[in-house]
Amino acid sequence: MIAVAGTSTRPRTNNKQEVEHEVEEPEDESGEGSEEGSEEESDESEGKNEKRKGTLGVIQIENPNLVQPKSLKARDLDVGKTTELSRREREQLEKQKAHEQYMKLQEQGKTEQARKDLAFISLIRQQRAEAAKKREEERAAKELKKAEARK
Q1: Mean pLDDT of the chain
Q2: What does each C-alpha distance from 112 to 40, 94, 126, 144 come to in angstroms?
Q3: How far is CA 75 from CA 50, 78, 79, 145, in A?
Q4: What residues does each domain of the chain span?
Q5: Biased composition, Polar residues: where in the chain (predicted)?
Q6: What 8-state DSSP symbol labels residue 123?
Q7: Where are the alpha helices (DSSP H) in the chain?
């Protein structure tokens, strides 16, 4: 027995898809043209089989991970529909809003940290003013000594 490539000695079993293609469509109620209709149907079924030549007719593979691109038209979009945020996104937004609110209160001087900062700044201003006054006094005293030394 000679084996030909692509053939098998195993008996052929029908796939569900092949059985579905073999099921004939109901004929027209009119008795006329029933022969022509059957010829057309057989031509159509042959056309389907011609498309499925080679491994395409044998192997049916569907990739479950394949993402079908969804093309949405502008008219199909629902503008009023709000999308729900994930927990992380929601927490991030809440954190950002809280920070903005805190910074707003900070600028107004209403937070505890802002009060401490303002007190510290006023203390430093006071120390700098006292240091500047002391330098002026020393400079004035030095000029007086120079003036007395010239006389």
Answers
A1: 75
A2: 89, 22, 21, 48
A3: 40, 8, 9, 90
A4: 89-150
A5: 1-14
A6: H
A7: 16-22, 34-51, 55-58, 87-108, 112-150
